[in-house]
Amino acid sequence: MPELLQRLKAGGYSLHAMSNYPMWYKLIEEKLQLSQHLDWTFVSCTGPMRGLRKPAPAAFEAVTAHLQLPPQQLVFVDDRQPNVDAAAQAGMGAILFTDAAALEQQLQQMGLKF
């Protein structure tokens, strides 16, 4: 997965975490160092998504407002179907994560080049 994230980032895509984690997302960051590949922009305990949680529509609205992009220009990836369904209802491209190879194939089918 880190290789795919790096290729996406090198391809010019902006990558953001959208997480319901409380402040212990910082412990996850310390262990996995995900910020090498993405920004922890949308965390329910801080920042533009403070107090909001997936799959609430307001959480997805906060994302589009903060990024100043229409939802059709965003791709949301999550391992929980209710969150994926909510992103699709918000107008985003939405992918249920199963594994890195499947994600790469689905992103390419959506037209992403990396």
Q: Any overview of this molecule?
A:
Helices cover 41% and strands 15% of the residues. The protein has helices at 2-10, 25-32, 57-67, 81-89, 100-109, and strands at 16-19, 39-43, 75-78, 93-96. The chain has a two-stranded parallel sheet. Strands 3-4 form a two-stranded parallel ribbon.
Key words describing this protein structure:
alpha/beta; 5 helices
Roughly how much helix do the residues carry, as a percent range?
A: 40-55%
Number of helices: 5
Largest sheet: 2 strands, parallel
Low-pLDDT stretches? none
- Based on CA atoms alone, the radius of gyration comes out at 13 Å
The rough form would be described as globular
Number-wise, the strands total 4
* Mean model confidence by pLDDT: 95
Structural class: alpha/beta
Q: Strand portion, in percent?
A: 5-15%
Helix-strand sequence: HEHEHEHEH
For the terminal residues, how far apart are their CA atoms? 14 Å
- Spatial arrangement of strands, main beta sheet: 1-2
SSE map:
Elements: H1 2-10, E1 16-19, H2 25-32, E2 39-43, H3 57-67, E3 75-78, H4 81-89, E4 93-96, H5 100-109
